[in-house]
Design a protein that fits this description.
The complex is a heterodimer of chains A (110) and B (115).
Chain A: E1 4-7, E2 10-14, E3 19-25, E4 32-38, E5 44-51, E6 56-59, E7 62-67, E8 72-77, E9 86-93, E10 98-100, E11 104-109
Parallel strand pairs in A: 2-11
Antiparallel strand pairs in A: 1-3, 3-8, 4-5, 4-9, 6-7, 7-8, 9-10, 9-11
Chain B: E1 5-7, E2 10-13, E3 19-24, E4 31-38, E5 42-50, E6 53-56, E7 65-71, E8 74-79, E9 88-95, E10 105-106, E11 110-114
Parallel strand pairs in B: 2-11
Antiparallel strand pairs in B: 1-3, 3-8, 4-5, 4-9, 5-6, 7-8, 9-10, 9-11
Classes of the chains: A mainly beta (110), B mainly beta (115).
């Protein structure tokens, strides 16, 4: 059974700092990995999707990497802003079903 | 496109009552998923449909839970009878099946409180 872990559970950083969120998984037989953002009281918004054959994806200040051999993915956020404050979840797709990590709650302080 | 639409946004009910949650997926999407989110257990997949057919309902916690998808544009998740431990946020999501590069799109969720 796939297990997805995100550490740390919460992170607080000052505005402008570059940061890395971590996601680890136990089964490398995946189709893709997605990073989502969830704002309080809201649904999830897909940020980046990395195919199994890819190593990374970039969108604006966000860069996600995937290393299947080590069972790890990272989400890099450059020049963080208060508006980046949210919970970030990674999810692995192994056959049209997503398994989610517990999320990292990010707070970017002005 | 309006995205995945869920209703109601909030539901407060008493233990023992029937609860029906509704979902309209994105037009053209043929996979639909029901998730439940709690602080203790995070996001859990309850059931998913492909082309209106339930594919995997192993996540449905008990027989009190049932889900239907009578057509491509509508799905319901029903809890009967409801219990306080069912209190959670229930999300519906949709995507296009069979394409591994397709993202999953979530609705805004239904906040369910069973008193």
């Amino acid at each position: 059974k796939q297990e997805v872990t995100q550490i740390p559970a919460a992170l607080s950083v000052p505005e402008g700092e570059n940061l890395v969120l971590n996601c680890s998984f136990t089964d490398s037989a995946i189709y893709n990995l997605q990073w989502f953002r969830q704002d309080p009281g809201k649904g999830l918004t897909s940020l980046l999707l990395i195919q199994s054959s890819q190593r990374e994806q970039t969108s604006g200040r966000l860069n996600a990497s995937l290393d299947k051999s080590s069972g790890r993915s990272t989400l890099y956020i450059a020049a963080s802003q208060p508006g980046d404050s949210a919970t970030y979840l990674c999810a692995l797709n192994a056959g049209n079903m997503l398994t989610f990590g517990g999320g990292t709650r990010l707070m970017v302080k002005p | 496109d309006a995205g995945v639409i869920q209703s109601p946004r909030h539901e407060v009910t008493e233990m023992g009552q029937e609860v029906t949650l509704r979902c309209k997926p994105i037009s053209g999407h043929n996979s639909l998923f029901w998730y439940r989110q709690t602080m203790m257990r995070g996001l859990e997949l309850l059931i998913y449909f492909n082309n209106n057919v339930p594919i995997d309902d192993s996540g449905m916690p008990e027989d009190r839970f049932s889900a239907k998808m009578p057509n491509a544009s509508f799905s319901t998740l029903k809890i009967q009878p409801s219990e306080p431990r069912d209190s959670a946020v229930y999300f519906c999501a949709s995507s296009r099946r069979g394409r591994t590069n397709e993202k999953l799109f979530f609705g805004s969720g239904t906040q369910l409180s069973v008193l």
